[in-house]
C-alpha cells in the first residue's frame, strides 16, 4: 500500500506545481518593420524556439503589422531538422503539433493572442517548436524588432523566411531550401508551464533510469549489435563488429572473440543445422559474407562454401526464418545500394531456401521475391519476417529507401510470396507524386494495442522542403485483423514526432504496464526517443527521453534483452549498454521456446506465437525471425511480457508454425520459462531481484528505520540483503538473510554514501546479485564555493560590480538543488551586512545599485542545498573606484616651437583612468576651443585636424572614470611650424654612373616636413616624369619597376606639410648601368608570331605579324606617354600573315612602343627611332 500512497502524493505535487506561466521570447518588444515585398508573396515566415525541459504551451502572442482586415492561418509545428535545413509549410501535414489556427486579422497592428491551453501541447525537453504562417500581399505580417536578429546556439535557428517556389541552384534545384532573414527577431512569444517547475525555471533532468553500464559489464560496443544466447545457458550474449561477449551471469561479460575466430562484421543468428546451437551469419558484403556453424563447445566452423550461399551484393539485412514450414531455417537477404562517382546502383533481394545438409538453393525467382522488385531494384535498410495474418506462414516486410514502395511479401503457406503491401495499406502513405513513398530506415512489429494482431512501425528518414510532399514520415500501422488484415496508419495521431533524421524503431514494454512502448532512433541530428504507450483508448505515445535521461545522440538502431535477468528489458543503443531502472508498473513473464525439426518446427522456434490471457485481457508476442528490423541487428529470442498489476497469468497459448498449439494454465509471474516443443513450461533459474527503493542515486534518505524494498522473485524462499559503504561491498554495514522482499533498517549514519544489493535463494538455487544501487543519507552538503570576481584585495572596482563565483560540488551525482546567499558588508565580520540576496541560482550576480566610491567592501557566498546550508566561501575584500589623479603633460614641451600642424600630444598614464578629455585653444583661458576629444583611451593622441601654421596654441587634459573627472592638468603652449625647409639629396649622387636599374632614393629629412614628394625624369624640365610620388612619410623611396638600362635620369625632392609645399631641392642627374633595352626582333606565343626589323631603325620599320587563329587584334604605335600615334589594326583578323611598313614622319627621334592586344591580353615591345 505504501507504494501507491507515494505515487498519489507525487501526482498531487506535480499537478499542483503547474502554476507559473513563463514567457519565452527573443524580441526586444519594439516593432521596427515587416518583411513583405512583392517577391515574397506566399513565402513562409517562421520563428523557432528550443525549450530544454518538458513543458506545456499555453498561449502564443504575435505582433502583426498590416492595415487590411484579412484571414490568416498560424501553424504550430516541430523543428525537426537533422542538419542545416529549416522546416517549411510543405510538411505541415506531418509536422503540425496541433491543428492549424485559422483567424481573422482585424487590420490593426499590434499584439494578437492565441490561447491553446485546451490542446495540451507538450514539448518533450529535447525538441524545438516553430511558429509559422504565409506572407500575403495585404498582410498580416510578422513584425521584427529594432535590434539585430539573434541565433540559438543549439539549433542555429530563430527567425527566417523560406522561399517555397524558387529551385535552389546550389542544392539540387530543390524548392523550399532558399532562406532570407529579417533585420531583427520576429515579435513572437510563447507562454509555457514547465512540467517540472523550479521557480521561474525548471528542475534539472532526473537521474538516469537507463543507466550506462559499459564499464561494469566489461563490454565495448561498436557497430550493429545482435543479441544471441549462443551457449544455451539462458543468458543472452552480445555480438558486435568482431567482438563476442559471453554473459557471466553476474553482471559482467567475457570477451570470446579470439576463441571464436569469426572476425569482423555484423551478425544474424539462427540454428541453421538444428543442432540446438545458434549459428552466425556474418555480414560483410560482396561475396565476403560468411556462415559459421556453432559446435556447442565454443568452437565455430566456417561452412560458407558448403552452403552454396553467395551474395555478390552489398548485404544489409539478413533474416533467418522458415519460409516453407519444413523445420529448416531459410535466409532472406535485403541488399542496399552502391554509390560510385555520384552514381547509385541498386541490387535485388535474395531468398535462399534450406534444402538440408547445410545446403541452400537460391529461390529468389521461384518463390516470387523478384516479381515485387523489378530492375533497377530498390535500396533497402530494414527487413524482417512476420506472420501478419496468422495463417502460420512467415511473411516478409521490407522497408525500402529512396522513396520506393515498401514491400509486404505474403506467404501462400507453401513458400511462394506475393507483394500485398498496397492491398493491405503498408506500402506507405500516398504522396504528391505517384509511386513515391518513404526513405525506410528500419521497421519493427509488435501488438501495441493488445488486440492480438501484430502492428507495424516503419522508421522513415524525412524531408523538410518540397521533397516532404512526396516522402513519408515515420509511420505506425495498426493491424485491423480479419478478414482482410488491412492496416490503418496512426503515427501522427498517436503522437509519433516527425523528424528529418528518424531511423530504426523497436516495440518493447519498458515499464511492464502491459502495453508495448516504442523506441525510435535518429541516424543524424537528434536524440533517440523513448515513447511510453499511454494505453487505452487511444494508445497515445508520450516522449519520456528527458525523464529517463537516456540521451543518446544519433542512434540509428537499438536492440533489447533482459541482460541482467531482472525481468525488465535493457537496451543497447548506439554503442551504449543501458540497464533499465525505470519504475515498474507491473509484473512480467518471459518465455524461451524450442521447436522440433522432426515435426517441421525449426529448433529456434522462429514463427512461434504466444498469447497470454488474464481475465478479459490478452497479450500477444511473436518470435518471427532473427531480424530486429533495421540493418543487421537482432533482439533477444526470449518472448517478454509486461502484464501490469496482474499477479497471475490465467493461461498462455502457444501456436507453432506447423499449426499445432498447446495451452498452459496458471502461469506464475516474475519468472522466466523454457518451453520445450509441445511440453509444459520449465522455470530453470531464479530471476534476479529488481531493486525498488531507495531509488538509485537518491539522497535525503532518512537515517532512522529506512525502508528497503525489492521485487519478489518467484520460487525464492529467502533473500541475501547487503548494504555497504563502498562499491565492492568490502565494508558491509548490513549482511542479512531474510525471507521477505522488504527490510526495515534500524539506523544509518547521516551524510553517508551507501550501496545496496539483493540476491534471491530457492531451496536449490540462487539468483545472481541484483544491480547495485546507491543512495545518500540526509541532504548532501555543498562544498564551499570559490570566489572569482572581484578578486581578493582588488581595487578600482566598478561601483556596480559583477560578482562571479564557482559552482559547488556534492558527494552525490543527482537530485541536488543549489541556492546561493550573497552577502555584502563594510566590515569583515558581517556584523551588519549592507545587502543580502537570497535564493540565487546562478554563479554570476550583477549588482544593480551604486556602491560608494573609494570604499572598502567585503563579500561572501553561502551555498544551500534545498534546505541545508553549506560552508560559506572565504571572505574577499575589494575597494571601489576612486577619482583619477590629475594627468601630467609630456610633449610637446611647454613653449616648444616648430611643432607640426598635426602633432602627437603625450601625457603620463593615470592610474584608474578609463578615458581622457583633451582641449586645444588659441586662448589660454580656453574660452574658444580649436580642437577637443573627450573619449581618448590611451595616453597619446595624434591631432588629425590640421592646426594653423606659425600659431601658438594652449592645451590641457583631464582623466575620467566611473567615479568622475579629475582636475585639469597644467596648461602648456606650443607654436606650430612654417612651410618645410629645402632638403638635401643623398643618393644617387649627382652625375653618378653605373647606377642599378632598381635601388632606393634617399635624402635628408626636412624640418617641418610631414611628408615628401619625389620626381624622376629623363629631361631637366621634368615634363616626362618616370617617377612622381607624393605623400611619402619617410625620406627614402624604394621602387620595384626597373629603370631603362644605359639611360640618364634627373631627380629632385621637396618637403610638404599642411601649411604648404617646400622649395624643390637641387636637381641631380645619374645614369643607369648597361645599354638601353629594345625589342630583339622576334617573338612567338601560342596565338601569334612577331618579327620587327630593323630595330633601332631610321626611315622605315617592317612589322611581320602571323595570327594562328581568328581573333580580335589591336595593333598600334604609342609614345612614352601612352598616346597612340599610329593605329595599324583594330578589329577581328582571320588566321593569316600580315605585314606593316611604318615610315615615321613629323615625329622626334626617341623611344616608341609597339602595342599588340589579343583576347584582352596586352604585349608591348620597345622600339628605337633614330633620325
If you had to describe this structure to a student in words, what would you say it looks like?
The protein is mainly beta and 1171 residues long. The chain is 4% helix and 43% strand. Strands 1, 2, 4, 7, 8, 10 and 13 form a seven-stranded antiparallel sheet that branches. Strands 6-5-9-3-11-12 form a six-stranded antiparallel sheet, with no helix packed on it. β22 and β23 form a beta hairpin. The longest helix is centred in the first third of the chain and has 15 residues, at 2-16. The chain is extended and about 125 Å long. Mean pLDDT is 91; it is low at 1-18.
Helix and strand arrangement:
Layout: H1 2-16, E1 22-24, E2 31-34, E3 44-50, E4 55-65, E5 70-78, H2 92-95, E6 101-105, E7 110-115, E8 121-123, E9 128-134, E10 141-145, E11 159-163, E12 178-180, E13 188-194, E14 197-198, E15 201-202, E16 210-212, H3 214-217, E17 225-228, E18 237-240, E19 243-247, E20 253-255, H4 257-260, E21 266-270, E22 279-283, E23 290-294, E24 300-302, H5 304-307, E25 315-321, E26 330-335, E27 338-340, E28 343-345, E29 350-356, E30 359-362, E31 379-386, E32 395-401, E33 407-411, E34 417-419, H6 421-424, E35 439-446, E36 455-461, E37 475-479, E38 487-489, H7 491-494, E39 502-508, E40 517-522, E41 529-533, E42 541-543, H8 545-548, E43 558-561, E44 570-573, E45 576-580, E46 588-593, E47 608-614, E48 617-623, E49 639-642, E50 648-655, E51 661-668, E52 671-675, E53 691-693, E54 698-701, E55 707-710, E56 718-724, E57 732-738, E58 742-744, E59 753-761, E60 773-777, E61 787-789, E62 794-797, E63 802-805, E64 818-825, E65 835-840, E66 844-846, E67 856-865, E68 868-869, E69 876-880, E70 889-891, E71 896-899, E72 904-907, ...
Parallel strand pairs: 46-52, 54-60, 62-69, 71-78, 80-86
Antiparallel strand pairs: 1-13, 2-10, 3-9, 3-11, 4-7, 4-8, 4-10, 4-13, 5-6, 5-9, 11-12, 14-15, 16-45, 17-18, 18-19, 19-20, 21-22, 22-23, 23-24, 25-26, 26-29, 27-28, 29-30, 31-32, 32-33, 33-34, 35-36, 36-37, 37-38, 39-40, 40-41, 41-42, 43-44, 44-45, 46-49, 47-48, 47-50, 50-51, 53-55, 55-58, ...
Amino acid at each position: 500500500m505504501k507504494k501507491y500512497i507515494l505515487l498519489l502524493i507525487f501526482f498531487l505535487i506535480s499537478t499542483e506545481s503547474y502554476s507559473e506561466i513563463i514567457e519565452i521570447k527573443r524580441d526586444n518588444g519594439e516593432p521596427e518593420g515587416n518583411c513583405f515585398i512583392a517577391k515574397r508573396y506566399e513565402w513562409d515566415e517562421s520563428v523557432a524556439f528550443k525549450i530544454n525541459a518538458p513543458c506545456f504551451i499555453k498561449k502564443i502572442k504575435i505582433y502583426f503589422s498590416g492595415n487590411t482586415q484579412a484571414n490568416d492561418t498560424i501553424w504550430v509545428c516541430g523543428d525537426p531538422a537533422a542538419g542545416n535545413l529549416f522546416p517549411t509549410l510543405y510538411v505541415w501535414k506531418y509536422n503540425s503539433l496541433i491543428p492549424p489556427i485559422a483567424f481573422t486579422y482585424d487590420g490593426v497592428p499590434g499584439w494578437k493572442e492565441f490561447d491553446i491551453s485546451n490542446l495540451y501541447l507538450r514539448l518533450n525537453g529535447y525538441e524545438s517548436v516553430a511558429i509559422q504562417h504565409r506572407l500575403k500581399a495585404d498582410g498580416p505580417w510578422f513584425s521584427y524588432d529594432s535590434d539585430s536578429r539573434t541565433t540559438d546556439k543549439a539549433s542555429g535557428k530563430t527567425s527566417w523566411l523560406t522561399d517555397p517556389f524558387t529551385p535552389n541552384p546550389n542544392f539540387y534545384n530543390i524548392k523550399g531550401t532558399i532562406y532570407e532573414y529579417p533585420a531583427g527577431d520576429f515579435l513572437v512569444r510563447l507562454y509555457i508551464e514547465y512540467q517540472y517547475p523550479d521557480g521561474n525555471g525548471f528542475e534539472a533532468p532526473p537521474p538516469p533510469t537507463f543507466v550506462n553500464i559499459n564499464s561494469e559489464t566489461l563490454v565495448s560496443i561498436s557497430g550493429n549489435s545482435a543479441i544471441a544466447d549462443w551457449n544455451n545457458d539462458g543468458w543472452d550474449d552480445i555480438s558486435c563488429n568482431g567482438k563476442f561477449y559471453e554473459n557471466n551471469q553476474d553482471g559482467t561479460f567475457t570477451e570470446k572473440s579470439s576463441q571464436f575466430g569469426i572476425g569482423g562484421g555484423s551478425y544474424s543468428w539462427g540454428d541453421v543445422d538444428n543442432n540446438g546451437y545458434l549459428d552466425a551469419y556474418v555480414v560483410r558484403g560482396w561475396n565476403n559474407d560468411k556462415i559459421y556453424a556453432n559446435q556447442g563447445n565454443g568452437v565455430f566452423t566456417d561452412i560458407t562454401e558448403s552452403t552454396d550461399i553467395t551474395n555478390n551484393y552489398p548485404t544489409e539485412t539478413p533474416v533467418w526464418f522458415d519460409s516453407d514450414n519444413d523445420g529448416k531455417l531459410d535466409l532472406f537477404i535485403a541488399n542496399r545500394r552502391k554509390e560510385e562517382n555520384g552514381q547509385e546502383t541498386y541490387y535485388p533481394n535474395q531468398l535462399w531456401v534450406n534444402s538440408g545438409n547445410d545446403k541452400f538453393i537460391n529461390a529468389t525467382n521461384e518463390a516470387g521475391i523478384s516479381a515485387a522488385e523489378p530492375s533497377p531494384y530498390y535500396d533497402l535498410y530494414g527487413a524482417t519476417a512476420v506472420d501478419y495474418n496468422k495463417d502460420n506462414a512467415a511473411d516478409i516486410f521490407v522497408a525500402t529507401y529512396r522513396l520506393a514502395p515498401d514491400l509486404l511479401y505474403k506467404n501462400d503457406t507453401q513458400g511462394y510470396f506475393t507483394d500485398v503491401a498496397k492491398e493491405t495499406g503498408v506500402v506507405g502513405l500516398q504522396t504528391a507524386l505517384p509511386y513515391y513513398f518513404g526513405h525506410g530506415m528500419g521497421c519493427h512489429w509488435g501488438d501495441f494495442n493488445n488486440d492480438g494482431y501484430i502492428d507495424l512501425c516503419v522508421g522513415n528518414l524525412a524531408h523538410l522542403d518540397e521533397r516532404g510532399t512526396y516522402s513519408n514520415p515515420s509511420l505506425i500501422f495498426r493491424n485491423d485483423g480479419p478478414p482482410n488484415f488491412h492496416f490503418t496508419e496512426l503515427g501522427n495521431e498517436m503522437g509519433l514526432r516527425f523528424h528529418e533524421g528518424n531511423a530504426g524503431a523497436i516495440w518493447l514494454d519498458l515499464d511492464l504496464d502491459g502495453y508495448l512502448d516504442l523506441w525510435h532512433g535518429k541516424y543524424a541530428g537528434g536524440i533517440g526517443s523513448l515513447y511510453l504507450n499511454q494505453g487505452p483508448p487511444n494508445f497515445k505515445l508520450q516522449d519520456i527521453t528527458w525523464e529517463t535521461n537516456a540521451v543518446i545522440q544519433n542512434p540509428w538502431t537499438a536492440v533489447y534483452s533482459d541482460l541482467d535477468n531482472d525481468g525488465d528489458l535493457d537496451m543497447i543503443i548506439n554503442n551504449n549498454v543501458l540497464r533499465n531502472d525505470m519504475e515498474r508498473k507491473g509484473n512480467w513473464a518471459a518465455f524461451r521456446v524450442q521447436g522440433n525439426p522432426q515435426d517441421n518446427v525449426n529448433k529456434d522456434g522462429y514463427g512461434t506465437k504466444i498469447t497470454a490471457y488474464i481475465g478479459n485481457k490478452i497479450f500477444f508476442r511473436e518470435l518471427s525471425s532473427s531480424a530486429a528490423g533495421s540493418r543487421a541487428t537482432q533482439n533477444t529470442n526470449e518472448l517478454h511480457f509486461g502484464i501490469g498489476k496482474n499477479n497471475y497469468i490465467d493461461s498462455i497459448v502457444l501456436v507453432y508454425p506447423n499449426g499445432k498449439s498447446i495451452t498452459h494454465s496458471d502461469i506464475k509471474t516474475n519468472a522466466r520459462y523454457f518451453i520445450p516443443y509441445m511440453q509444459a513450461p520449465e522455470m530453470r533459474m531464479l530471476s534476479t531481484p529488481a531493486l525498488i527503493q531507495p531509488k538509485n542515486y537518491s539522497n535525503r534518505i532518512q537515517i532512522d528505520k529506512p525502508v528497503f524494498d525489492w521485487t519478489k522473485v518467484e520460487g525464492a524462499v529467502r533473500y541475501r540483503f547487503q548494504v555497504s559503504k563502498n562499491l565492492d561491498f568490502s565494508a558491509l554495514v548490513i549482511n542479512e538473510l531474510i525471507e521477505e522482499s522488504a527490510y526495515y533498517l534500524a539506523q544509518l549514519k547521516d551524510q553517508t554514501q551507501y550501496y545496496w544489493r539483493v540476491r534471491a535463494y530457492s531451496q536449490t538455487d540462487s539468483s545472481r546479485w541484483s544491480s547495485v544501487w546507491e543512495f545518500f543519507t540526509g541532504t548532501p552538503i555543498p562544498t564551499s564555493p570559490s570566489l572569482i570576481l572581484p578578486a581578493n584585495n582588488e581595487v578600482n572596482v566598478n561601483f556596480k560590480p559583477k560578482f562571479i563565483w564557482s559552482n559547488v560540488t556534492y558527494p552525490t551525482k543527482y537530485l541536488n538543488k543549489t541556492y546561493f546567499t550573497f552577502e555584502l558588508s563594510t566590515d569583515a565580520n558581517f556584523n551588519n551586512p549592507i545587502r543580502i540576496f537570497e535564493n540565487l541560482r546562478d554563479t554570476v550576480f550583477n549588482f544593480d545599485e551604486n556602491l560608494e566610491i573609494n570604499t572598502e567592501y567585503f563579500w561572501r557566498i553561502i551555498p544551500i542545498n534545498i534546505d541545508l546550508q553549506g560552508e560559506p566561501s572565504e571572505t574577499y575584500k575589494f575597494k571601489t573606484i576612486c577619482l583619477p589623479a590629475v594627468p601630467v603633460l609630456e610633449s610637446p614641451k611647454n613653449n616648444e616651437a616648430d611643432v607640426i600642424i598635426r602633432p602627437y600630444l603625450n601625457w603620463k598614464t593615470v592610474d584608474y583612468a578609463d578615458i581622457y578629455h583633451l582641449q586645444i585653444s588659441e586662448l589660454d583661458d580656453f574660452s574658444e576651443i580649436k580642437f577637443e576629444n573627450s573619449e581618448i583611451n590611451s595616453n597619446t593622441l595624434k591631432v588629425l585636424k590640421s592646426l594653423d601654421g606659425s600659431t601658438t596654441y594652449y592645451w590641457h587634459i583631464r582623466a575620467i572614470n566611473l567615479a568622475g573627472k579629475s582636475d585639469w592638468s597644467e596648461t602648456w603652449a606650443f607654436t606650430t611650424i612654417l612651410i618645410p625647409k629645402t632638403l638635401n639629396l643623398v643618393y644617387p649622387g649627382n652625375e653618378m654612373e653605373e647606377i642599378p636599374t632598381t635601388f632606393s632614393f634617399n635624402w635628408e629629412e626636412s624640418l617641418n616636413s610631414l611628408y615628401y614628394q619625389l620626381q624622376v625624369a629623363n629631361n631637366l624640365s621634368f615634363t616626362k616624369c618616370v617617377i612622381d610620388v607624393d605623400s611619402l612619410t619617410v625620406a627614402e623611396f624604394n621602387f620595384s619597376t626597373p629603370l631603362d638600362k644605359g639611360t640618364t635620369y634627373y631627380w629632385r625632392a621637396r618637403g610638404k606639410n599642411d601649411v604648404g609645399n617646400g622649395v624643390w631641392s637641387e636637381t641631380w642627374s645619374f645614369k643607369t648601368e648597361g645599354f638601353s633595352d629594345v625589342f630583339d626582333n622576334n617573338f612567338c606565343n601560342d596565338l601569334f608570331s612577331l618579327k620587327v626589323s630593323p630595330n633601332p631603325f631610321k626611315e622605315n620599320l617592317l612589322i611581320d605579324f602571323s595570327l594562328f587563329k581568328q581573333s580580335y587584334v589591336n595593333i598600334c604605335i604609342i609614345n612614352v606617354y601612352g598616346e597612340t600615334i599610329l593605329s595599324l589594326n583594330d578589329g577581328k583578323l582571320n588566321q593569316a600573315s600580315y605585314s606593316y611598313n611604318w615610315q615615321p614622319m613629323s615625329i622626334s627621334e626617341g623611344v616608341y612602343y609597339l602595342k599588340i592586344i589579343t583576347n584582352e591580353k596586352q604585349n608591348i615591345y620597345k622600339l628605337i627611332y633614330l633620325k
